[in-house]
Batch of 2 targets.
Target 1
Amino acid sequence: MVRAVLKGLLAHKLRLFLTAMAVVLGVSFVAGTFVLTDTINKTFDTLFSEISANTDVSVRAVSGFGADSSPEAVRDTVPASVLDVVRRVPGVQAAVGSVGGYAQFVDKAGKAVTTAGAPTLGFNWTDPALSPLTLRSGREPQRAGEVVVDVVTAKEHKFAVGDKVKVLFRGPTEEFTIVGITGFGKADSLAGATLAAFDVVTAQRVFGKVGRFDSVEVKAAEGTTALDLRDRVAKAVPAGVEVVTSQQVADEGAKSVQQALGFFSTALLVFAGISLFVGGFIILNTFSILVAQRTRELALLRALGASRRQVLLSVVGEAFLVGLFASLVGLGLGVLVAIGLQSLLKAFGIDLPTSGVIVAPRTIIASMVVGLGVTVFSSISPARKASKISPMAALRGGGVEQGGSLRRRSLAGVVVTGLGGAAMLYGLFGGGISLVGLGAALVFVGVALLSPLAAVPMARVIGAPFPRIAGMAGKLGRQNAMRNPRRTAATAAALTVGLGLVACVSVLAASIKSSAAAIVDQYLAADYIISTTQFVPNISTDLAPRLARQPELAAVSGLQTGEWRSAGATRMLYAGDPATLGKVLKLDVTAGDAGGLARGEVLVSEKELKDKKLVVGGTLAMTFARTGTKELRIAGTFAKNQLLGNYVVSTATFDANYTDRLDFVVLAKAKAGVAPAASRAAVEKVTADFPNVELRDQVEFKKQQEDQVNQILGLITALLALSIIIALFGIVNTLALSIFERTRELGLLRAVGMSRRQIRSMIRGESVIIAVLGAVLGLAVGVLFGYAIVGALDDQGISKVVIPGGQLVSYVLLAGVAGVIAAVFPARRAARLDVLAAISYE
Amino acid sequence: MNGHDMNAPMQPAARGINLVKVYGQGDAAVRALDGISIEFAPGQFSAIMGPSGSGKSTLMHCMAGLDTITSGQVFVGETELSTLHDKELTRLRRDKIGFIFQAYNLVPTLTAAENITLPMDIAGRKPDQAWVDRLIDTVGLRPRLAHRPSELSGGQQQRVAAARALASRPSIVFADEPTGNLDSRASAEVLGFLRTSVEEFEQTVVMVTHDPSAASYAERVVFLADGRIVDEMESPTADKVLDRMKGLGD
């Protein structure tokens, strides 16, 4: 039996290849995702251990969030005196204070030096024996006005020792002389971040930490272990200060990167899963066709004494081998996909540092399990069908067209679709995202089960113009698409999934775009929005006060945002200037007194107040990483404002509980009666000194929001493209198998005078019908999904469903074109059939 | 019996001159046709007979432009086939030649009526409806026109195929064992129709068969063995053909 399977496979290498392709692509996506994230993780692991390679122990403030790691920046600083305390501890060979923060270079053209995601870091230069920095040229910074630049930034922006360079900070912009160029260990840069190093006094001043350090880094004397040293130092330091090993600091850093990447890898794996789901459809369809075509052969085996089990295993065995082959190839391609994914993400502005390629055992195991699993699982139903073939079928001719009642199948389709729809809605309205995914998958399966019912009438309509365009060839193409509704439907179903998701995302994007504009109108009062392109807040706190002094402007507020915790749950708060916040945002205070903000109180949104059972005038316990738990009085409530979240405090309260304040946005409102040109000029006069910011009025802001949505839509569509390509392979495969099955008929058509061209046109017609059928079903499902999701996002301010009609129509047209492309190879094969061989083929 | 003889010399509907067809190369070479010259007069019903491997099917395929010859010349009407490329050959088959195969003659997705007019539909030409109607009535298929091939009996399917072969008024009809899969009653209907088409419509028909009673419907039988013409018989009867075949060792 095994030999029969192997021989069967090798006899049809092309078929094997086409079938395997569906799995290969999906597996390569899975493997690629793992390879990419592992590689990035490894890069950061190396980076963090390099940072702490020269020290053994780190002394820092206790985090209000407790022991579990939280981003370094939000911890409090320690007094500089801690350094002296530490230095006196026996076993300490050397200790240095370290202080850092936001520092962004301005290049020679006056533009801010930006990174694609990585931070722009500044810190004090420390003894190279205790720091990862290694001078490449020049010398270390020794006094005010001196800076050291990293190699990559210096190279890219043509900075040389002796040059003057402007640097942006939390406070005013300052000018420095470059005295040295530094590498980072053996590397040129720190994962794409820009580095600026100053003497310690300057660093403390520009980062607003005079007389303080973020941490003290300690090197142990010969013979003292890191753990010993940690315990010894811990006894010496004052309360509120903790001592950890440098290894732990590195691990925490690596872990927080891993968590951030976790989201990424999950998102990519979802798309890989979609590809595999589509691949599963194609495997199922291919094996169904193969079993149908081999009815006589399988029946002969049964007649010769093969048991049902053996027949079943022969089909599953073939699937296993296909899956094995596909998984191995997919794994290999995964490395290429990793590189491709990285450039794709980079094209969309997400630059991730990598070095080398990591193929972890986990990647290999997951790829093999997933690839084999999907292939074998998808072959079970066709295999069962094969095992039910009676030995008598060997004696009957043909038997290719499969019968069986569509009623049971359709009933199952209705049930599965219903279940899927219910799961999805339940998931959307509180049940969680995985239920939504499961529901969507079920809906697609249900639609696939139901679609044979729709296939014939839909093919008739879609193909209606074909006879007029291509005459008999068009007519035959249409008939061929209708002759086996299950096959046509199953082939189209693969495309339904991809296009359904694309359509859903398009509806979502169109709705978000329209709502985003509405949100701006509804909640924003400011005329000018000043923001930056970096992901982290980096607008100097100097900007807002300077704008406020412009006589053309009526109100200006910088906004800050930060994390805090309540009973273990992390929440966000927004902060602004209490005097002007209500003028730049439509802050509708519905109860209590907004004046409380200025007294260190908190405003809570109406809905949150109700949901969390809080009361105006009561207190709210808020835990901050820097200052621990604080009881804040609830000053009042405000009506929903999409731009402010649920909790609002004053900038002063923010400063009291967070370090390193930077604004993520500055809002400005012009004075009544001032011409727009005049007010804009006034804003530009100030922003000119801050080259990292971008100024937009409301119209431009709306446009930017739209652009951002478009960019995400583009990224998602690009990631879904793979599943659409797989679906096209499915069409190629089905057509190739159908042509094989219709060899005799094609020979007849050629004999009675059909030209090669007409044969090609006939196959193309069938292909286009299948593709358009899949697309139309997909769009229908996708639009319904869009409705459901937008409905669920109602309280996110996305209230209006917008159907991007033109876009959806263009998808259908593109599907038609894709159908033409998918038909190229099968059509050529069909047209090249040797007429004589075909008519004598049995 | 054959009214055209008096109008001689008349151009044959098809003729082959010194036809040689070699399969394979070197020692493995097989001469399927070994220098055959043959003519098919217009309005004549010819049968080609011979034992398996005698080259009778190859001869038909080469005469019909389905296969190429190694050397020699094939003419259909005035057209020499060896000068034609695939496109022109296809057009020739479509417009000048009718085919009836042993089985699988019909396109399963088309109705009987659509199958009959298929060559004209492929050409994008309007069929001569009066002619088609006459054929349909002659084969007696009027009540079955809207049926798909799967709903027709084997004999009905072959009659549809025969009607299709004649529908475009080809210069010559080639039938390859048209009754090979039929019982005797259905065979008689198909053969009767072919005979009628010759007698009434002056159609030229060439039929490959190894059934002596089928051959008896023809006006002339050509016997092949080992790629050569070994005998000819006018006005054959089943018994005479059977006797001759025995001599060829089939």
Target 2
Amino acid sequence: MHKRKNAEDIILDGIIYIILILLALATFYPMWYVLIASFSSGTHIAASGGLLLWPGDFNIEAYKLTFAHPLLIRSFCNSLAVLVLSLPINILLTVLCGYFMASAGMVWKKYIVGIIMFTMFFSGGLIPKFLNVQDLGLYNSIWALVLPGAMSVYNAIICKTAIEGIPYSLVESAYIDGASDIAVMRKIILPLIKPTMAVLLLYYGVSHWNAWFSASIYIKDAEKLPIQNILRAVLISNTKLTESFGDSYNAYADAMQYAAIVIITVPIMCVYPFLQKHFTKGVMIGAVKG
Amino acid sequence: MLSKGKLKKDFHKNKYKYIMVIPVLIYLFLFCYKPMYGVIIAFQRYRPTLGIARSPWVGLDNFVRFFKDVNFWRVVRNTFTISFLSILFTFPAPILLALLLNEVRVSWFKRLVQTVTYLPHFIAMVVVCGLVNRFCQSDGLINDLIAFFGGERSNLLIKTNMFYPIYILSDIWKEVGWNSIIYLATLASIDQEQYEAARIDGAGRIQQMWYITLPGLLPTISMLLILRLGNILGVGQEKILLLYNEMTYEVADVISTFVYRKGLSDADYSYSTAIGLFDSIINIVFLVGANKISKKLGQSGLF
Amino acid sequence: MRREFLKRIFGVTLITALAMGTVACGSTDGTNTAEQSTVNVSEESSQTISTQESENSEEASADITYPLQDAEKLTLWATTPGIASIYSDYTESPYHMGLQENTGVEVEWTFPALGANWKESYNLLLTEDTLPDIIAYSINVSAAQLLAQDGVIYDLTDYIPKYAPDYWEYLNAEGNEAVLKAAKSEDGRIYGVRTSVETELNPTYIGPVIRQDWLDELNLEVPVTLVDWENVLVAFKEKYNAKLGFVKGKWNMGIASGVNAQAGLSAEYYVDADGKIQFANAQPEWKESLEVLHKWYEMGLIDQDSFTMNDDALRTKVLNNEIGVSITAMSQLTNWCLDAEKQNPGAVWVGMEYPRVAAGVPTSRIQGGNRSGSFVAVITKECTEEKMITALKWLNYGYTEDGFMYQNFGTEGTNYTLDSDGKPHWTDLMKNDPDGLEQAIIKYTGTYSSALGGIQSTDMVLIKNHETAAEAVYKWAQNTDNSKYLLPSLAMTDEESLVITDVATPIKAYVGEMALKYVLGEASLDDFDAFVAELDKMGLQKCLDAYQAAYDRYLAR
């Protein structure tokens, strides 16, 4: 049966493979460029035009300089701090919210769910949100990056769907055994929704790590900015990273930008393979019911 | 009717559920509902030094100003255009990729392509736009290619007719692999016997793709499409802020970026809030509409 | 010696001023330059002030001695003078710490975040519950007036003669009438300590530059008219594939003077020969200037990245021989000359005059302004009166002789020495700084681009830059009618200010966009009439009326 490889098949395969190879190359090249550029000197980057296939004068100077750059290091730590503070809060609120929405039989459920869902459709908008952050005294503090986005209702729905996917008989029998909600949560629900929680961690983590917008509004002091905002200044506004570091720095100014990109992107890319096996399952659950 | 006794019983029985949802409600109150109160500055001429209490009221002036604004049509048009283009191109791209990958029998190759294409999802928007910036300069990579094929070098970032291609292509580049994961997962659940049966009936691979694979994806596609339609004004504001410039405002300036500039650059807080409110209202209309369609199509609806 | 030198500044100033402009500051980019502002004081209020002066004269003449004793700590938000980027905060910066030592006042400095737009940062600052004691930014007098009305900042009118005697003396010095006018609001009050510049050469810090070596090779004269410019550009393109390249923020007036226009690529108001306020961008001359630019753009004479690149990117292009003609700032010209000496021997940049309609005809508008800067330091109501007085005394320091020298040149002996003519010279410490002279100036001095009260020295600007740049600035300022057309900075009533926000701001944005569209050919100049009609529809007349009213009051003084 499988041997029937006719001309049509071969042509079709050819086309598919060519498209996919081109796509993979087009996707891969910019990343490769960044990686290579981070190991090259400024003159090599400039001389090569846009086309860099291999580091011309391989060196790790740019990484040394990047790790010695006070602003980059500090902002890197700020980003980490946001992540460490946010994730527990995110997961806690999301699971609580998901659990409530997945439970049945509460008289007030309809209203409370309404209150929760309404925030998906309507928000105060940029300025009112900003004034609110001011008002709560969070302005220019790391909490302004942690608290306003502490929970995403969308993610709570994913969590809710996952909980609903647990066979009700399990929960019911626990209740019959006299378990409280907290015990049910701890002993039955949490262990069973681990894959979903992994996915949620990834969602929240990626969004915090890559965020720049709130910090650009809520943070005033340069030393409190997360790394993405520094990169934005460097890559988008073309602010020089190394203005005053003398000639040796200038030779690697470009490479340093790329090194910084590599340093902040690689960790998060590396997390994914560990979560991958949960991921397909988790994302499905989320998608089945939006 | 809810009797007092019933409420008491309900609270007794579901005490912990209620207690557990309290932190969520506190959060929503502080960070979602409290700012909604701030929306009233849309009806004021707000001055931060006076605060909401002392700022003068102006009724609907700010809305009238927006409708008369020379940029009104432009931002509305651009918002819809960008949204429409992304539904037209960015949305089907992962479906195509999934279909193509599904045809690949060499598993290492399939995995490789998948891995390479999902990686950009993790690259921050700032970095993606920074790279786009670099590559589109008149001495950047893309121009090197254009020049190689005999074309004229030009700065692509200042050309109004290049903004949409740049926007859409970089979107596809970043998300196509990632968004295809869900379709591939759906494909994995299609019954293999169907293909077997089709082959016996002499169906070619394109026919199989058309009659088995695609219908298998349809529920997922329609659901995601409805979700997308419900968020029609949700264009990538952050991305546009990073990519646009004065030369491309004509095609790139959308409602949310206009809100941003009016509010933060011009400090016209009330005006900015009024435009934001307009944006929110349109968005709700579309959401409710999408929900209705979804229910009509027999889906469970978004809410 | 030093007295001699300082007399020039604190005594009679040679060049009289019409009004207003922005402070010459090499490091600010276009987006951060300030709105215009001015002053108009009724006769009545000026009398009040002079009475106060005589009342206070006894105390006023008593100089404040620095360092101040037992001064309270102050907090300050300022855009500049910034910290050299090798330091992580102000406590490491020699200038900021030296200032603390000299004045005896401990100051906690905060600045806008890296890469942040200054204007946005300032707007956000005002929404905060707790403000710093001093805010130093480009705040026009009308805005300051509003802040005072809202109870946010102090009205300093009654305090300045006594607690900022040197500033007061400067404002009232002969030749500084316009500076005094610019410091006062519509109701004749003074809300802050302004930054000034020593002479009108300071604001003319941007102008045309050209590759002299290429002109020589091609046997071409330095271009005068726009036709000459075009010939040179074509020749440069053919021979060297080099173009006209610039940074949009530094284009300000651009080539407007070549066709008697009054605006570059952005919105501009001016006073016409009949004393009427006009909108430069609605005039046929402006259209003509855009036609020229569009033509050059189509001919490929303009580097396309000019509209998006910054100074660093341009500098790279210049070094790579991609640019033959430019309009740039003294500090950049300095960089280019130094780069050429080090890495591209043979390349010779020189400054040239702004283009003219014909040789010998004065230029209509050039980059330039008045000696009164737009930057001002205001004191907020976070301060008690006592603290406010400390802050005012501290701000006065920039106007004392010691303060002037410190702000501009640093510490005598360490950073500069005076020669027998009383002219300052940098010491070797400055000249041999590993990060270059420009960074050394940021490390040790304050007025290089200061928002804090003080006077920017012309000598400082001349000796901090390459001699080519110092020569260029005289060429740029040569034979110009700039001051005839220059709008004095006008103090607005609250109502007029409202018109400016509601009408002038959108018009400004609209004009900025349209100008680029015309140059790039995204819009056709055949539709210029429609453009003007659109301006009218947006309420241009209301703006002109507001400006006219403010201007008439200004003249009525």
